[in-house]
C-alpha cells in the first residue's frame, strides 16, 4: 500500500473537523472482490465543503456510510474532531458523534411517510435528551433556517414537494446543531429550479454556521458551485484531489478530464466544440474490460496508458495519482474561445 | 388509518360485521341465551326450527342456537390465541433477523425451515397423545408452528423496509434499535399483519374445528362447533338439518375472516396502484385538429390536449403544437410535472390508464410518403390521435419506437439479449432464426457494442447501465422506425456514459435519417443533441425554436430563469456565489390559472398576464415557416425578452428563504 499523504492544494487552516485516513472498505472477501473503497484519505475543516465526486461504483457513497457508522470499514481511521470513531457502534456514537449528521439523496424514502414533520424532527432531540419544553422551539428554529413555515411541523411528508422534503431532511440534520454534515447526493433527485434553491440554502448554512460539509455527488458542476476542495474517485481510489477551481478548470488527471468533458453545458455552440474535443480525447467506453487489481484502475480506458499503468498503482503525488501526470495537460479541453 | 379504507367495500363491511357480531354474541351469550346449554327437552328431540327453538334441537332435545352461541368462545378463542402466538414469535424474530444481518438471519431461517418441514397435524395429534386434550394448549402449539410462515413473510418485508433511508437517518441520529423497529419498521407492516392475521385466524378456526370433530376438542358436555358437527354427523340420515346451523356459522366465520383479509389487502393495492399502460383508447374525442400535416413534416402535432378521465377531467397537457421534419431531433425540456413525458407518451398511445388524449391531432407520415394526392396531402399519413389501440399497436415498434429512462426495467431479466432482439426482428421483418441473429448482431454493432456475439448470449443482469441502454436502443431499431421517442434516456446513467449514449444517438440520426423526440430535464443534454427544442411549463409549450435560438436568446422568462438556475458553466466562466433560483413551485394541474401559468413566479408579471396568453411567433419564425402559432419559433408570453440581460434576476435569491 502506498503511503498516501493527503495533499490539499489549499492549506487547511484550522484543525480538521473530520479526517479520513487510508480508508478501505470491502463488501466481499479479500482476494475475491476489489475493495469498494481503497486507501482513501482526506480532511474537512470547519466551515469548509469538500466535494467527493465519482460515478457509480466509485465508492463515494460507501465512504459516507463508513463515516456514519452504517458500513464497517476494513482498515483505516475516521476521526471526528480528533476522536477516533472508526469502530464506534451506533450506540456509542450517541455520545461520540452527536456533531455528525446526514442528509440522504432520495427526498421520498428519507422521510417516514407515517410521521409528521414535527415527529421526524423530534426524534433526534429525544435521543439527545433535550427537555420536552425545549424541543418545539428548536424544531421551529430549524424549520425557519431551511425556509419552511412553522405549520409544516404538523403536516405529513406527502404534503411536500421533493425540494421541500429535502429542506426537511436538512432541518432534521440541523436540529441537533451539528458541526459536520455528510450530504449524500442531496440535490441529484431535484429539478433545476429546486436544485438551485437547495444549493443556495446549503451555501448559506455553510457560511453562516461554519459547518464542515462532506458533499458526495456525481455532478462536477454542482460540486464546483458548493465545494472549496474536491476529491475525484474512480473505482474506490483517489484519482485527483485539490481546490475546486483547479480540479474542475485545470484537471490534472485523465479521468478528471474525461469527467469534466462529459458534462454538457446548455450553450449549443460551446457544447458542440466540447463534444468534438471530448470525442477526440480517446477515452475508452465505460463498460470496457475491468482493470487489473495491481494497476491504475483507469488504465483500461485511459488514452495515456502504457505498460506501467497496468502493472503498478500510481501513488498520489501532489494530489494526482497518475504515472503520466506530466503529459495530462495536453489532453485538456481548449478553454472557451473568447 | 388504513383499515377503514378496507371497510369501504361491501365484502369488507359484511365480513367485519359478522366477526364483530360473533364476538359480541359469544361474550354476552350467558345473558340472552333462551335455554341453558344442557337443558334437555325430551318432548322435542331432533326437531327442526320452530318458534320455541329457532334453530331446532339435537338428539337430547337441547336448543341448537344456545349451544352454538355458548360454544362460540371455546371455538374461536383458541384460534385467536394461535394467531397471537404465531405473530408474537414470528414478527420479533423477523425484525431481529432483518436488523442483525446474515448470521442471525441464517440461524432463524434454518429454524423456520425446520418448523415448516414438520407436518403440523401430526405434531398436534402427538401433542394431544402426550399431554391430553387441552384446546388452549393445542392451539398454542399450532401458533408456534404457524410462526414459521409468519417469520418468512415478514422477514422479506422488514428487510426491504430497513433499506429505506429514513431508517438509516434514524440510526445515524442515534435512535435505539427497539425504537427504530417500533416507530419506523413495524407501522409500515400493519396492513400486511392485518391481512395475514385474518387469514391465519380462518385457518386456525378450521384446524380447531377439525380436531374437535375428531374428538380432540373440549370434553363432550361443553359444546364446541367441531363437537357439535361431530354429534350432528351421527344423525346425518335421520335429521340432516342438525348439521346445517353449526356448519353455516363455521363456514361464515371462515369466509368472513378471509373476506376481511381480502378487503384489507385490496385497500392496500388500491393505495399502491400505479398507472398501467396500454389502456384501450376511447374513440369519443373532440376532433379539433387539422386534417393533414404541413408538407415535408414527419410528425405534426397540433393543439394536443391530454386529460385524466376524459374531456371533463383535469388536463395534464393543453394545446401543445410542434412539428418535426425527418432526420431532426426535437427536445421536450422542462421540470417534473410540466407534461413533457405525457406529451411524448400520447403520440404512440402509451398513456397511463385513466389518462387520455382529449383534443388535437397527431399527424404522422410514417410510411414512405412519396405519393401525395392532388391537394398535396400526404396520403400515407394518419392522425394517430384518432386511431384505435389496435392500429397504434401496429405502428409502435415498426414506425415509432420508444426508449425509457430505466434500461434495466425495459429488458426482461429472464431472457438473453439475443432472444429479446431476435423475437421482434423476426416479427417485424419476417425473417428466419439465423437471419434474425445476423441482423441482431449488426444492430448491436450499430449501437457501438464491439463483441456482439458475447452480448447476444448475455443476460440483462450481466450488463452495466450504459450497455443496457445501448441494447435498448438496438431493440428500438429492430423495426426500422422513422421516429424514436426517448424519455430521459440518459438520466439514470453516469455522466461519461451519458456522453457516449448522446454521441451514439447523434450518429444514428446522421446515418439512418431517424427523427428523435428526446424528453429531458437537462438543458445541457438538449444543447448537445437537439436541433429544435420546445420548453414546457405546467402542461404548455411556453417557448419553441431552434436550439441555438431558445438556449442562446431565450424569449420566455421561464426559459431564461431555468437556464440561469443551471450550475453547469463552461470552462473559463466563473461560478456564481449563489444561483438565481425561481421562487415558489410549479402549480399543480387543478391550480392552473386562466392566464399565464408562470405569472405567479415571474418577476416581469403584470396585470395583462392574467388573461390567456396565445403562442406568438418568435425567433423570426414568421419568415421561416410562414405559419404563425405553429412549427418552430413561438413564445407564449406578454413580455417576451429580447435579450437575456433583460430579466431582472433576483440575485442572490432571498438568502435561502424562498417561499
Written overview of the protein:
- The complex is a heterodimer of chains A (338) and B (659).
- Chain A has 338 residues and is α/β, with parallel strands linked by helices.
- Chain A has helices spanning 60-68, 90-96, 117-127, 132-145, 162-174, 192-209, 220-226, 244-249, 254-262, 268-281, 307-311; strands spanning 18-25, 37-44, 49-53, 75-80, 83-84, 100-103, 180-184, 212-217, 229-234, 237-243.
- In chain A, helix 5 (162-174) packs parallel to helix 6 (192-209).
- By secondary structure, chain B is α/β, with parallel strands linked by helices.
- Chain B is built from 23 helices and 12 strands.
- In chain B, the strands form 2 sheets. Chain B has an 8-stranded mixed beta sheet, with helices on both faces. A 4-stranded antiparallel beta sheet of chain B has the order 2-1-4-5, with helices on one face.
- The radius of gyration of chain B is 34 Å and the shape is elongated.
- In chain B, 48% of the residues are buried.
Q: On the 0-100 scale, what is the average pLDDT of chain A?
A: 87
Oligomer: heterodimer
Name the chain pair whose interface involves the most residues: A-B, 85 and 73 residues
Give the N-terminus to C-terminus distance of chain B in angstroms. 31 Å
CATH T-level topology of one domain in chain A: Rossmann fold
| Structure summary, number of beta strands of chain B | 12
- Work out the helix count of chain A: 11
- The percent range for strand residues of chain A is 15-25%
CATH architecture descriptor text of one domain in chain A? 3-Layer(aba) Sandwich
> What is the number of domains of chain B?
3
**Number of DSSP E strands of chain A:** 10
- The class by helix and strand makeup of chain A works out as alpha/beta
What gross morphology of chain A would you assign?
A: globular
| Coarse structural class of chain B | alpha/beta
Amino acid at each position: 500500500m502506498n503511503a498516501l499523504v493527503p495533499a490539499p492544494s489549499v492549506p487547511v487552516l484550522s484543525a480538521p473537523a473530520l479526517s479520513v485516513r487510508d480508508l478501505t472498505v470491502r463488501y466481499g472477501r479479500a482476494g475475491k472482490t476489489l475493495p469498494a473503497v481503497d486507501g482513501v484519505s482526506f480532511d474537512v475543516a470547519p466551515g469548509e465543503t469538500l466535494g467527493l465526486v465519482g460515478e457509480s461504483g466509485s465508492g463515494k457513497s460507501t465512504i459516507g456510510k463508513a463515516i456514519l457508522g452504517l458500513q464497517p470499514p476494513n482498515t483505516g481511521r475516521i476521526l471526528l474532531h480528533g476522536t477516533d470513531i472508526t469502530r464506534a457502534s451506533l450506540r456509542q456514537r450517541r455520545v461520540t458523534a452527536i456533531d455528525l449528521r446526514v442528509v440522504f439523496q432520495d427526498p421520498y424514502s428519507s422521510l417516514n411517510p407515517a410521521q409528521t414533520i414535527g415527529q421526524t424532527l423530534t426524534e433526534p432531540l429525544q435521543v439527545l435528551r433535550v427537555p420536552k419544553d425545549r424541543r418545539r422551539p428548536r424544531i421551529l428554529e430549524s424549520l425557519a433556517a431551511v425556509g419552511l413555515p412553522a405549520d409544516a411541523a404538523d403536516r405529513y411528508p406527502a404534503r411536500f414537494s421533493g425540494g421541500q422534503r429535502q429542506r426537511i431532511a436538512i432541518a432534521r440534520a440541523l436540529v441537533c446543531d451539528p458541526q459536520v454534515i455528510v450530504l449524500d447526493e442531496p440535490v441529484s433527485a431535484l429539478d433545476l429550479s429546486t436544485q438551485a434553491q437547495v444549493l443556495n440554502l446549503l451555501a448559506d448554512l455553510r457560511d453562516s454556521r461554519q459547518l464542515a460539509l462532506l458533499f458526495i455527488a456525481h455532478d462536477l458542476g454542482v460540486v464546483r458551485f458548493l465545494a472549496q476542495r474536491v476529491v475525484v474517485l474512480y473505482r474506490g481510489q483517489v484519482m485527483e484531489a485539490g481546490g475546486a477551481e483547479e480540479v474542475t478548470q485545470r484537471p490534472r488527471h485523465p479521468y478528471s478530464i474525461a469527467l469534466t468533458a462529459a458534462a454538457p453545458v446548455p450553450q449549443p455552440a460551446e457544447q458542440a466544440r466540447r463534444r468534438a474535443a471530448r470525442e477526440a480525447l480517446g477515452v475508452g467506453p465505460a463498460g470496457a474490460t475491468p482493470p487489473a487489481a495491481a494497476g491504475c484502475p483507469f488504465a483500461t480506458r485511459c488514452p495515456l496508458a502504457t505498460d506501467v499503468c497496468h502493472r503498478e498503482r500510481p501513488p498520489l503525488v501532489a494530489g494526482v495519482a497518475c504515472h503520466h501526470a506530466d503529459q495530462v495537460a495536453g489532453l485538456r479541453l481548449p478553454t472557451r474561445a473568447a | 388509518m388504513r383499515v377503514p379504507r378496507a371497510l369501504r367495500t361491501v365484502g369488507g363491511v359484511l365480513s367485519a360485521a359478522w366477526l364483530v357480531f360473533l364476538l359480541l354474541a359469544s361474550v354476552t351469550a350467558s345473558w340472552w341465551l333462551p335455554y341453558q346449554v344442557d337443558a334437555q327437552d325430551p318432548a322435542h328431540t331432533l326437531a327442526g326450527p320452530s318458534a320455541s327453538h329457532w334453530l331446532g334441537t339435537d338428539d337430547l332435545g337441547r336448543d341448537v342456537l344456545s349451544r352454538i352461541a355458548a360454544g362460540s368462545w371455546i371455538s374461536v378463542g383458541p384460534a385467536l390465541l394461535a394467531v397471537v402466538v404465531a405473530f408474537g414469535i414470528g414478527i420479533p424474530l423477523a425484525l431481529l433477523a432483518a436488523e442483525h444481518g446474515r448470521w442471525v438471519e441464517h440461524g432463524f431461517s434454518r429454524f423456520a425451515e425446520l418448523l415448516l418441514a414438520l407436518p403440523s397435524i401430526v405434531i398436534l395429534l402427538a401433542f394431544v397423545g402426550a399431554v391430553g386434550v387441552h384446546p388452549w394448549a393445542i392451539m398454542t402449539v399450532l401458533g408456534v408452528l404457524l410462526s414459521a410462515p409468519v417469520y418468512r413473510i415478514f422477514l422479506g418485508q422488514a428487510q426491504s423496509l430497513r433499506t429505506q433511508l429514513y431508517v438509516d437517518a434514524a440510526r445515524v441520529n442515534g435512535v435505539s434499535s427497539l425504537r427504530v423497529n417500533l416507530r419506523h419498521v413495524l407501522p409500515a407492516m400493519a396492513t400486511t399483519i392485518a391481512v395475514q392475521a385474518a387469514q391465519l385466524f380462518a385457518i386456525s378456526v378450521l384446524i380447531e374445528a377439525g380436531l374437535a370433530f375428531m374428538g380432540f376438542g373440549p370434553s363432550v358436555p361443553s359444546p364446541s362447533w367441531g363437537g357439535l358437527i361431530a354429534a350432528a354427523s351421527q344423525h346425518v340420515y335421520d335429521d340432516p338439518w342438525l348439521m346445517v346451523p353449526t356448519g353455516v356459522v363455521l363456514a361464515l366465520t371462515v369466509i368472513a375472516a378471509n373476506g376481511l383479509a381480502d378487503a384489507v389487502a385490496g385497500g392496500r393495492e388500491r393505495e399502491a396502484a400505479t398507472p398501467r399502460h396500454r389502456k384501450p383508447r376511447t374513440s369519443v374525442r373532440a376532433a379539433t385538429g387539422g386534417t393533414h400535416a404541413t408538407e415535408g413534416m414527419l410528425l405534426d402535432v397540433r393543439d394536443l390536449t391530454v386529460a385524466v378521465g376524459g374531456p371533463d377531467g383535469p388536463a395534464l397537457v393543453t394545446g401543445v403544437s410542434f412539428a418535426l421534419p425527418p432526420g431532426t431531433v426535437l427536445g421536450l425540456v422542462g421540470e417534473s410535472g410540466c407534461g413533457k413525458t405525457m406529451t411524448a407518451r400520447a403520440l404512440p398511445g402509451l398513456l397511463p390508464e385513466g389518462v387520455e388524449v382529449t383534443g388535437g391531432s397527431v399527424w404522422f407520415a410514417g410510411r414512405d410518403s412519396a405519393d401525395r394526392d392532388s391537394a398535396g396531402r400526404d396520403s400515407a399519413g394518419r392522425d394517430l390521435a384518432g386511431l384505435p389501440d389496435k392500429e397504434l399497436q401496429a405502428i409502435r415498434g415498426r414506425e415509432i419506437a420508444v426508449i425509457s429512462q430505466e434500461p434495466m426495467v425495459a429488458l426482461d431479466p429472464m431472457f438473453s439479449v439475443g432472444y429479446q432482439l431476435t423475437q421482434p426482428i423476426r416479427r417485424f421483418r419476417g425473417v428466419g432464426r439465423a437471419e434474425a441473429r445476423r441482423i441482431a448482431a449488426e444492430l448491436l454493432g450499430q449501437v457501438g457494442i464491439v463483441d456482439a456475439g458475447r452480448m447476444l448470449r448475455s443476460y440483462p443482469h450481466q450488463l452495466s447501465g450504459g450497455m443496457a441502454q445501448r441494447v435498448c436502443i438496438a431493440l428500438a431499431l429492430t423495426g426500422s422506425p422513422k421516429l424514436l421517442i426517448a424519455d430521459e434516456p440518459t438520466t439514470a446513467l453516469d455522466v461519461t456514459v451519458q456522453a457516449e449514449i448522446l454521441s451514439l444517438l447523434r450518429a444514428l440520426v446522421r446515418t439512418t435519417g431517424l427523427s428523435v423526440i428526446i424528453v429531458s430535464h437537462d438543458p445541457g443534454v438538449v444543447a448537445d443533441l437537439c436541433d429544435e427544442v420546445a420548453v414546457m411549463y405546467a402542461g404548455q409549450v411556453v417557448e419553441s425554436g431552434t436550439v441555438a435560438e431558445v438556449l442562446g436568446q431565450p424569449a420566455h422568462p421561464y426559459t431564461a430563469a431555468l437556464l440561469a438556475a443551471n450550475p453547469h458553466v463552461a470552462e473559463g466562466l466563473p461560478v456564481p456565489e449563489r444561483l438565481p433560483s425561481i421562487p415558489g413551485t410549479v402549480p399543480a394541474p387543478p391550480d392552473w390559472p386562466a392566464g399565464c401559468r408562470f405569472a405567479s413566479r415571474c418577476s416581469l408579471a403584470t396585470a395583462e398576464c392574467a388573461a390567456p396568453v396565445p403562442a406568438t411567433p418568435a425567433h423570426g419564425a414568421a419568415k421561416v415557416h410562414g405559419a404563425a402559432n405553429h412549427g418552430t419559433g413561438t413564445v407564449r408570453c406578454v413580455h417576451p425578452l429580447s435579450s437575456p440581460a433583460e430579466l431582472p434576476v433576483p440575485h442572490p435569491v432571498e438568502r435561502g428563504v424562498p417561499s
